[in-house]
Amino acid sequence: MVGIRDVARKANVSPATVSRVLNNDQTIHVAQATRQRIVEAAAALDYDISTRKYIKKRMPSIGVISTIGKASEEQDIYYKHLRVGMEEEARRLHLGMNRIYNLSDNPKQWEDLDQLGAVIVVGTVTKESITALLKQNMQIVVVDNPDIQQEVDMVYADLERMTKTVLELFLENGHKRIAYIGGYKVDMDEFGGKQISTNEKRMRAYQHFMADHHLEKYISYRLGGWTEKQGEVLATDLLENESPLPTAILVGSDPMAIGVYRALKQKNIQIGEEIVVASFDNIETIAHLSPGLTSVQINAKSIGQAAVRMALERIDGIRDEPIILTYPARLIVRESFIPRTKRY
């Protein structure tokens, strides 16, 4: 049976271009010669697009299942930008995205998901729930959950690699007493149930790094909720119960780092001198911190856009095999930690 890839090879264009041209997508701009070459290739191969048109017309929408509540999303810049990226890309590609489940707000049994072209899952959903979801819809894109083992598309920021990068910079700058302050991993099911564990990717990378560099005796960490208040509480506990104190602290998120700053200042500890600090997210609200917070910048909007494009590839039948897409992140250096080396 002739497929879209066969037409693409004969016309010397991408499968996505073939799909959009043959489905009369008015938003794509290609030369008339290219358009004619695609049509002629399809005719020569006797490629029948009638079934594809029927599917595309019947299933134009993407559903979103998110573990993040609407209120929390408004306060968390990362997830806010992720949603903006998905919405903008869906509009650009003329895809509906009006079926949204926020598991923290209104958990319910997933129904009629087989009527959607694809489903994007944002956050850490349990393996069992993904298995149940696959029974309704095989076209799934999972965002920010690299630990999922099922045959689904995945897109996420490479946080484990960046964790190791920052820790290596700490070590190269003479810091062995490195502490980690972060949040628990929370896997959620379709009914709002939660499975809490310490197996969060940044925490996991920290433990592996310390063990790999024979620094087990210096391992010190505190885990809690991913909030500013929890960052302060956890940092205060660490400062009051660790002796000697760490000389470097890696924090799992910028909101938590704001709380860590408050705890350090209450103890009159000079940030960037007595204890260096680095974090993740590089959100706008850290701009008021003094000294400036060194943070890993993650392009959440681009990740959201990529998830929608991956979903469209599934809808259009461009590929059947799942893919994994990791987005790079970069370290934004400020006064809380200025490494001597320049490998970031």
Automatic annotation (TrEMBL):
- Boundaries of every HTH lacI-type domain copy: 2-47
Q: One GO molecular function term? A: DNA-binding transcription factor activity
SUPFAM superfamilies, sorted: lambda repressor-like DNA-binding domains (SSF47413), Periplasmic binding protein-like I (SSF53822)
What keywords tag this UniProt record? DNA-binding, Transcription, Transcription regulation
Asked if the keyword DNA-binding belongs to this entry, the reply reads yes
The protein's name is: LacI family DNA-binding transcriptional regulator
Organism encoding this protein: Enterococcus lactis
